[in-house]
Every structure is written in C-alpha cells, then in structure tokens.
C-alpha cells in the first residue's frame, strides 16, 4: 500500500511526466550483462522475464533509482521527452534503454476467448497459423548485432535464405507435442513429477513483440526430461496469443554429460546458446559448440552448449547411446549448459522478418 501511495504521489509531483512514461511502456534494457526488455510496474517493481525482484524509485523529474536484489543501486537519467535513459556515473559499460512500445501490447498475452459452440471458423488471423499481436514486428527497438546474426544463421538453417518460399507447417514439434497444440493438453503429456517453474512473456528483442509467452516446467531430484540420450531439468513451451505451442526448448544448467548425434558438433557459433532466456557467452575461456539436425517436417533441433574449453576439441568418445558421441575433454565438468531448441519453420520465418526490419531501421547495435 505504501509503494502504491508513493507512486501516486510521484505522479502528482513535478515528476509526473516520468512515471506515466515508465509504467505505460515496455522498455529496452541494455547493460554489460543483459540485452532484453523490462516492465516498470506501478507498485515500484521492475520485471524482467516475470521475476519481480528489483525495485524502482523516482528521485527527481528526470532520475530513477534501481535497487537490485543484492541491494546494489544505479541511477538512470532520462531524456527530456522521457523516451530514453542512460546510467548516471557508470563504472564500466553504462546501462541504457529506450521506449519499445505501448505497455498494452506486450505486458501480458491475453487469455484466449473460446469460440461459440456453433462456430467452426478458426480464430487465428496471422499467416502460418500463428496468433500474433497486431504490432508484432518491432519498431524503434535496438538489438545486438550478434543476436541478430545468430538468429539469422539458425533460422535460415530451418527455412533457407529465400524469403519468398512459404514456411512448412510442422506436424510434431517434439515427442507427443504437435504444432499449435493447446498448452493445457501438452502439459498433460509430460512425465509424472513435472512441476511449473515459472511463466513469463517473451521479451527477447528479436522475437515477435507482445505476442509470445513461455511456460517453463521443471523436474526435481533424479527425475529429468529425456531427449536424444540427454537429460534435461527444464522444458519451456513457447506459446502464441491463443496459448498454443509454436516451439519448445529443453535446458539443463549443469549437465554431468552431453551426447551429440554422430559425428559430433557442426562447429562453434558465438555467443548465444539460449535465446529463450537471453544467455550468451561472455568469457574467453568458454565457447558455444552447436549442431543442427532435422526433427521432422518444418522443425529442426538446434543443439547448443556452453563449453569450458575454447578452440579445438579433443577427440570424440562414444556417447552413452548408440549413434552418439561425447567430447572427450579429460577435464572435470566441461559442460556449463546444454540446450535443445526445437525451432519451427513458421517462427523462423518471423524471426528473419524481424532481423531484416531491425537492420533496415539501422537499429542493430554492437
């Protein structure tokens, strides 16, 4: 109640122009550790991927103070029109940001409205059968060149380089989960022991804006989601506005072992290895090997890992299953994160359109 009153009073003070700008829009957030989007809630909470941990407080007509969970604080100074901000007195790379779009478009994906019983017409109105928001193609959104380059590389591996070729509509995405299966149905098909980890809007700068959300499920203890002789702690369902699944990612944050389809990795593709959670390699002592394999009509499996031995790989050793190999590194725990991303052709087409739009606007930053 105190936080709400504080915000209400701030809106009536000379800082009133700042607060509506904060709470009425989704903002980009670019720092040395993160390149994403954030939401400033009216109660003084800063949301990133639905984690309500950091707090914000208006200091004066153009300055905002952010307090992180560690109690570290930074001050952000806004431009006169409240469209951009930059960190005050930074140590190292400054945190910067800008308005991305109106809050209504991306704050929360609306729940689907069931059609009348007599209706037989599909409610989807977007090409390739995905239900996306009307302003899904981002405008005035800055994205890192390395992010766009990586998404372009993997998306072209799924749909090719000719933008005029229609995307193949998938059948099965992964295991028992089919293209645009309702989320509730997919959750029922998970093995016993699966629990909800978290749910959040997709805020990656190079994904359809205000259109996608992620439901992450987890396994505890010795339980795991199995895929291609690998064990994963988390599975994330990427859903459109109708709560239908258009992509899947499995992830293990600290795998004991990793199996690759023979003959092994296709190469190294820096720096991104987890696009759903914006994870990328920022170390010179690690690298990101990758592998791309067919996973059915209109779907490819993109396997990436964060590996603690950069450069040339040691010889491969047999994996734990027939037809697989592992990197024989002779070091303890060489793997830092193992990711299987099932990228569908319709989503890959949209990603390529976004890459082109951001580049055409000159908004691809270093």
Please, could you describe this protein's structure?
The chain is an alpha+beta fold and 366 residues long. It folds into two domains: 2-103, no CATH class; 143-365, no CATH class. Helix content is 16%, strand content 36%. It has six helices and 27 strands. The protein has helices at 2-12, 18-23, 103-106, 145-159, 183-188, 345-360, and strands spanning 25-30, 35-40, 45-48, 51-60, 63-67, 73-78, 84-87, 96-102, 143-144, 172-174, 177-178, 195-201, 213-218, 225-227, 230-232, 234-239, 245-252, 260-261, 267-268, 272-274, 279-280, 289-294, 299-307, 316-318, 324-327, 335-344, 364-365. The strands form seven sheets. An eight-stranded antiparallel barrel has the order 1-2-3-4-5-6-7-8. Strands 12-13-16-17-26-23-22-19 form an eight-stranded antiparallel sheet. It has a three-stranded antiparallel sheet with strand order 18-25-24, with no helix packed on it. Helix 4 (145-159) packs antiparallel against helix 6. The chain is globular. The two termini are 42 Å apart.
Largest sheet: 8 strands, antiparallel, barrel
| Oligomer description | single chain
Helicity, as a percent range: 10-25%
- β content, as a range? 35-45%
Mean pLDDT: 83
Strand order, largest beta sheet? 1-2-3-4-5-6-7-8
Q: Quickly count the helices.
A: 6
In total, how many beta strands?
27
End-to-end gap: 42 Å
- What is the CA-atom radius of gyration, in angstroms? 22 Å
- The low-pLDDT segments are 1-15, 104-127
Instruction: Supply the helix-strand structural class.
Output: alpha+beta
Shape: globular
Count of all domains: 2
């Amino acid at each position: 109640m105190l936080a709400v009153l504080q915000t209400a009073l701030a809106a009536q003070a000379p800082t009133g122009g700042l607060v509506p700008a904060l709470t009425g829009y989704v903002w980009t957030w670019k720092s040395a550790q993160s390149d994403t989007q954030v939401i400033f809630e009216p109660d003084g909470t800063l949301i990133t991927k639905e984690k309500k941990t950091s707090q914000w407080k208006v200091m004066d007509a153009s300055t905002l103070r952010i307090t992180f969970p560690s109690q570290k604080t930074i001050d952000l100074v806004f431009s006169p029109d409240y469209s951009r901000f930059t960190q005050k007195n930074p140590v190292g790379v400054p945190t910067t940001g800008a308005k991305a779009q109106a809050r209504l478009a991306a704050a929360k994906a609306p729940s689907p409205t069931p059609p009348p019983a007599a209706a037989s017409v599909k409610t989807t109105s977007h090409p390739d059968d995905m239900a996306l928001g009307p302003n899904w193609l981002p405008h005035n959104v800055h994205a890192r060149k390395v992010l766009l380059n990586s998404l372009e590389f993997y998306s072209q591996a799924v749909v090719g380089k000719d933008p005029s070729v229609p995307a193949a509509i998938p059948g099965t995405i992964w295991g028992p989960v089919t293209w645009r299966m309702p989320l509730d149905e997919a959750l029922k098909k998970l093995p016993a022991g699966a629990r909800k980890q978290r749910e959040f809007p997709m805020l990656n700068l190079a994904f359809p804006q205000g259109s996608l959300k992620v439901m992450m499920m987890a396994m505890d203890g010795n339980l795991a989601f199995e895929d291609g002789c690998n064990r994963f702690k988390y599975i994330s369902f990427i859903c459109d506005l109708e709560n239908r699944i258009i992509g899947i990612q499995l992830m293990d944050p600290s795998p004991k072992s990793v199996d690759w389809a023979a003959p092994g990795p296709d190469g190294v593709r820096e720096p991104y290895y987890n696009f759903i959670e914006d994870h990328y390699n920022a170390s010179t002592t690690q690298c990101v090997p990758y592998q791309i394999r067919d996973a059915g009509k209109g779907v490819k499996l993109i396997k990436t890992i964060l590996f603690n031995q950069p450069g040339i790989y040691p010889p491969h050793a047999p994996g734990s299953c027939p037809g697989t190999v592992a990197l024989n590194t002779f070091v303890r725990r060489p793997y830092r994160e193992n990711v299987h991303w099932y990228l569908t052709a319709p989503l890959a087409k949209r990603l390529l359109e976004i890459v082109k739009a951001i580049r055409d606007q000159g908004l691809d930053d270093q």
